[in-house]
Amino acid sequence: MTFVPATDGPPRFAYGIGRRVGPAVARNRVRRRLRAAARQLAESPPGLAPGAYLVTVSPQIVGATYDELRRGLGEACAAATAAAPPAAPARPAPGGPS
Predict the structure, then answer these.
(1) Which residues contact 64 (CB under 8 A, 6 or more apart)?
(2) Local structure of 9: helix, strand or coil
(3) I need a surface site. Which of 2, 37, 45, 63 has the fewest CB within 10 A?
(4) Half-sphere CA count of 8, side-chain side, radius 13 A
(5) From CA 11, how far away is CA 81, in angstroms rounded?
(6) End-to-end CA distance of the chain, in Å?
(7) In this predicted model, what pLDDT tens digit does every residue of 27-56 receive, in sequence order?
(8) DSSP secondary structure code for residue 25 in this structure
(9) pTM over cut 0.90
(10) What is the C-alpha to C-alpha distance for residues 76 and 29, in angstroms, rounded to an integer?
(11) What are the CA-CA distances from residue 77 to residues 6, 19, 24, 39 (Å)?
């Protein structure tokens, strides 16, 4: 899991699911389950920190139950946010007012 913090906005997710995970049907199923788990984690207290999350998976995820997948995703998000540096304030656009 890779995390890039942001100062505001909802958490955004991207999924890296390689061909080693299985055929397209299996990869798409894993992606749908991860999306549902991420949505559930973001909506339940305390929620997820704002920023961009890149979730990469191994082939063993195909056999995981939804509860195992959600728990693992939550633990990975917590570890990634704890290890990330604080979000930098937004910089003004070049050529903007000074």
Answers:
(1) 72
(2) coil
(3) 45
(4) 2
(5) 11
(6) 38
(7) 999 999 999 999 999 998 888 999 999 999
(8) H
(9) no
(10) 20
(11) 14, 23, 25, 13
